[in-house]
Structures are given as C-alpha cells and as structure tokens.
C-alpha cells in the first residue's frame, strides 16, 4: 500500500561518511566551520572568523538575512581526546562587514560575508582558551546552526500604552556587562536600521577602542542612538553618580520606561541590579517594568530575582543552610543558595566567569557532600567529583578542594 515514503537510493549519511574521509570540511548535512582569522578586540576579547561549509550555508538559505542579531552558535570542540560543547555569540549580521577592518579588508570581506561567520570569545575556561590561543588556523570544528531568542523577534511590536492610533515602534534599552556586549553587536545595528530608538549601557572594567569606534559611527548615522560606557573603576563615567545600575541611573536616561523593551546580558550581579532598579520605579498602574526585560541565557535556565534583586531559587531547589568548607584555605561559610553566591556573601572570593554554567571557569573538585544542579535538578553523589560552584547548591555539608 502506498504511504508516500520514498527511500533514498543512496543515503545522505553514507555520502557524508565517505565525503568526510575525502575532505573533513565537506558535508551534506553537518554544518562545519573552518578558522580563517583572529582579531584582538581588547586584552580580554578575541573575535574568531570562520568560513562556513555548504551544509551551513544551505540550512541558512531560507533566512534572507542568514541569521538574526543576538543569536549564538554552539561549537563542538575536540580537546585532549574529549569533546566539549560551548555557546558563543555571533558578531554582526550575515550581510555586514566587520567594522574593525580597514576599508580594503572590509570590501574584500563584504564580498564573502555570506560565506563567513564571526564569534566573540573571552579567553577564559578550557574551551575558550583553546579557541583563542591554541587552535591552528584552517582547523575545522562542528557547529550548530544559529540559535537563540535574544532577538528583535522577541520584542513586542509595541509596548506603547496610549491610544491604538498612536502606536509606534517601542524604544529599546540594551544593558551589557563586560563581554555581555557581544550578542548585542548585530542586534543594535539591526534595531537602528528598523527605526527603533536605541540606548545602550555598557558596564566594564576596561575601555574597548573597537567598540567605541563602532558606537561613534552608529551615533553619526542614527540620531536615535545613545551610548553610555560606565567604566566601573572611573567615577567620572558613573550614571547618577553610582558605580552600578540603579533606579536613578535608569531614570536619568529620560526614556519612556513603561514602553521600553530592555535587553540584558551580563553577570547575575548585573541582572540582580537591573531587576532591583526596575522594581523601585513606579510607572503606569498594572504595568511591571520587569515584564519588559529580555535576558540572554544561551539556552540555560533563567535566574529569577525578588523585588530586592536577590536571586530566588525554585521551590523544588530551595534548601536549608549548610556548611561549606574550603579544605586548602581552611575557611568555611554557610550556604542556602549557590555555592558561588554564598561564598561571596561571606566575603570569600572564588574563581568565576559567566556565572551561568557555561564557561566552566568556576569548576572545582568536591571532596564530600551532596550538591544539586539548579539548571538540571541533578543531585550529586556524596563522593569526590568535579562541580561548578555557580550552578550548584549544597544539600548537605560540603567539603571543596579549594
């Protein structure tokens, strides 16, 4: 009986297998990247430019622009016999040249832009350090297609609460901390081209000349764009005289906050400050500014914050206070939240990077005790194992080899 099924005479998987033996970059189905250039954007941020293979280009063919601003790639990298998977923000759009190149290089790059993709990497953690410092040029790695919902498509068409005939594109506010600026690079350009009013707050410990040049160019082209760089070690750059984000700082932007969509990417401390600030601002009745916030989380579970800006654990993940002992330092502290936050609350400094379970920089060895991963819900064994302090909470007393 006919059922519409038509078997492949030659299976694509078989063709891919044979093709990969002839040339590892060739594939009908698996998107792959080949490293062609590195660009140092700052002391702690590197841009990696890759050539895309035919499978990658074919699978983005239906998207006229290739990919959206704010999306990311999941790279699968083979290091010392182990595959690692990490997420990295795409810099710019498929039809944009790279603004940090000179005119000749930009012209050449623009001709081939549809065949390349660029990501931004902070060289911390095993995979990021390998990509930025050790991976040879012309190396080939597997990749996902562009992913993520940190895009203009997630912004409401209008948050304007006036009469329907007065509706217009809502203003956009971008709040970035450190390398959290990277997913916003293409997104901001896209938003301005679409006619949005855009304001950007970038909190960082160092100035990045390449970004400053980019924002100045956009300011010259789009009068609706305003940019505020807050150097956290330089009081002359603070908003409303405060080092970190505050309600006064948000109000000083003179934006119609009730109608403003807020995109945020940064540490949990930055996000907590943002939620605390918006909760202190009163707008229209029955309107909560926190509902206007879109957070980039690279596919991980989003943290929640109470009205004071403190991270709230899901009821199923809440725990009683337990003692965490750092064996090498002979220090201890009580913890009823993530191990990293509890340590910081006790004025104990631990290594960290993204604070979202992505970069692995906070990984350490647990000697004994039970912990629970707040993203997956997985409960550990009671013995020795490697854990991440930013996404684990203590379920019993815990000893860490730190």
The average pLDDT value, as a whole number, equals 81
What pattern of helices and strands is seen along the backbone? HEEHEEHEHEEHEHEHEHEEEEEHEEEEE
Secondary structure tally: strands = 20
Kindly report how far apart the N and C termini lie.
67 Å
Radius of gyration computed on alpha carbons: 23 Å
Low-pLDDT runs: none
Strand content: 25-35%
| Largest beta sheet: strand ordering | 4-3-6-1-2-5
Output the structural class.
Answer: alpha/beta
Largest β-sheet summary: 6 strands, antiparallel
Q: Specify the overall morphology.
A: globular
Name the helicity range: 10-25%
The tally of helices reads: 9
General description of the model:
This protein is an alpha/beta fold and 402 residues long. The protein is 20% helix and 26% strand. The protein is built from nine helices and 20 strands. It has helices spanning 12-22, 54-59, 103-111, 126-134, 184-193, 209-221, 247-251, 268-279, 339-345; strands at 32-42, 45-52, 72-79, 82-89, 116-121, 140-143, 172-177, 198-204, 225-231, 261-265, 293-295, 304-305, 311-312, 322-326, 331-335, 363-368, 371-373, 385-388, 392-394, 398-400. The strands form five sheets. A six-stranded antiparallel β-sheet has the order 4-3-6-1-2-5. Strands 9-8-7-10-11 form a five-stranded parallel β-sheet, with helices on both faces. The radius of gyration is 23 Å and the shape is globular.
């Amino acid at each position: 009986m006919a059922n519409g099924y038509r078997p492949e005479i030659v299976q694509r998987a078989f063709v891919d297998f044979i093709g990969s033996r002839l040339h590892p970059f060739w594939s009908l189905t698996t998107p792959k990247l080949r490293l062609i250039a590195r660009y140092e954007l700052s002391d702690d941020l590197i841009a990696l430019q890759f050539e895309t293979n035919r499978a990658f280009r074919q699978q983005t063919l239906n998207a006229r622009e290739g990919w959206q601003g704010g999306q990311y790639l999941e790279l699968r990298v083979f290091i010392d016999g182990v595959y690692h998977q990490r997420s990295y923000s795409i810099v710019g759009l498929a039809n944009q040249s790279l603004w940090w190149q000179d005119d000749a290089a930009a012209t050449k790059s623009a001709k081939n832009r549809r065949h390349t993709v660029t990501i931004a990497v902070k060289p911390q953690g095993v995979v990021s350090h390998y990509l930025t410092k050790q991976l040879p040029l012309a190396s080939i790695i597997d990749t996902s297609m562009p992913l993520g919902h940190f895009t203009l498509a997630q912004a409401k068409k209008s948050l304007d609460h006036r009469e329907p005939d007065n509706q217009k594109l809502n203003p956009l506010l971008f709040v970035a901390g450190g390398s959290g600026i990277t997913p916003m690079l293409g997104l901001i350009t896209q938003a301005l081209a679409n006619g949005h009013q855009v304001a950007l707050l970038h909190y960082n410990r160092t100035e990045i000349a390449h970004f400053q040049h980019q924002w100045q160019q956009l300011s010259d082209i789009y009068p609706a764009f305003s940019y505020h760089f807050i150097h956290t070690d330089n009081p002359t750059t603070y908003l409303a005289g405060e080092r970190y984000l505050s309600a006064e700082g948000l109000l000083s932007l003179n934006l119609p906050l009730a109608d403003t969509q807020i995109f945020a990417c940064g540490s949990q401390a930055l996000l907590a400050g943002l939620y605390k600030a918006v909760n202190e601002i009163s707008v229209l009745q029955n309107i909560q500014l926190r509902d206007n916030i879109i957070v980039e989380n690279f596919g991980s579970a989003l943290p929640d914050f109470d009205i004071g800006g403190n991270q709230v654990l899901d009821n199923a993940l809440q725990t009683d206070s337990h003692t965490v002992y750092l064996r090498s330092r002979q220090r201890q502290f009580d913890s009823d939240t993530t191990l990293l936050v509890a340590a910081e609350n006790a004025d104990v400094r631990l290594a960290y990077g993204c604070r979202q379970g992505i970069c692995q920089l906070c990984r350490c060895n647990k000697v004994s005790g039970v912990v629970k991963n707040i993203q997956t819900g997985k409960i550990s064994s009671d013995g020795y194992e490697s854990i991440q302090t930013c996404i684990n909470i203590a379920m019993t007393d815990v000893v860490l080899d730190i």
